[in-house]
Batch of 2 targets.
Target 1
Amino acid sequence: MDALFAAPIGALLIFCLRVIDVSLAVFRMIVAVRGRRGLAALIGFFEVLVWVVAVAQALEHLDSWVHLVGYAAGFAAGNYVGVWLAEHLVPRQQVIRAIFRDRPGVDGRPPAWREAAERLRAAGYAVTEVTGRGRDSNVEILIVMVPARETAAVIQRLQEADPEVFISVDDASAMIGGYVRPGGRKMPFPARV
């Protein structure tokens, strides 16, 4: 094994080990922030196991710039791969808040906020309506919880109803009770804090 790591291909092996351990580290942090302690601990075990081997080999070959570049490049690539994995493997929910001016509809159509709420509900989204007061007038606020991959489509629907709508998007770190639309259907979401 030492002969393999001492050869120039050893730098590639160190690179691969770093990609694996840093990817696991990024993935573990995202999972931990979302409250999945057990999974974070399991990932952390394998992350450190791979890291120890990578560091030991890098330290053993400090006189080789190729090995050092492999170590550093593996760290950089591991960050990229880890974020990509987290985006594709860890489902995220986002909260969209759309603030409409409370103006009457035109040509017998409902107000823009009402039309947007009806369109979203027809598409299967749970929409909460809140009346508020803005700087100059009353406003209607629509709150929609969506999977992150559907955020752009929901924003497009909101802007079709009113191009002047104010929209903010936040990641939902915890959800308790209520109804959301995971997997394209309405169902109670399990409480998680």
Target 2
Amino acid sequence: MANEPLILHVDAEQAERWFGNLLRRSADLSGLMAQVGEDLTESTQARFDTGVGPDGVAWEPLADGSGRTPLNATHRTRDGIHPMSGIDWVEIRADSKQARWHQEGTSPYVIKPKDKKALAWPGGPGPRGGVNHPGLPARPFIGISAEDADGIERLAVAWLDLGADPSDLGGA
């Protein structure tokens, strides 16, 4: 018996069924992409509460020393985040005008009045023709964290699971 070869018989019909199922499931990933988009939107919006970017780095505190979490005064940027997806793609969009400024930061710039000749504010130094703004630090909120990547992998494995009924996972 020790001299007899070890033989593994492969059922080609079963393998063909598995690959056929895999091809069918991967032909239209709309449901998977939509779910990934929803999950990424939720995790992106949650960053506004934690003040931590997708890379795990905490956002620079506000310059006023208030201790408030940055980007939470109006929730305009957070509320303007939404997913878009298709058969084989997904994206997360931030529609507020300020989103890019906060995601990437800005260089110093001059603020000039739009409708009047000078800028003035309560408690300020008096009317000014322009004010030098020091720029905004980058506070990235859009991106894929390690937790997001793990979640996407779990969703994809579940979606392509050959033993599952695709209708149970939101697919065709």
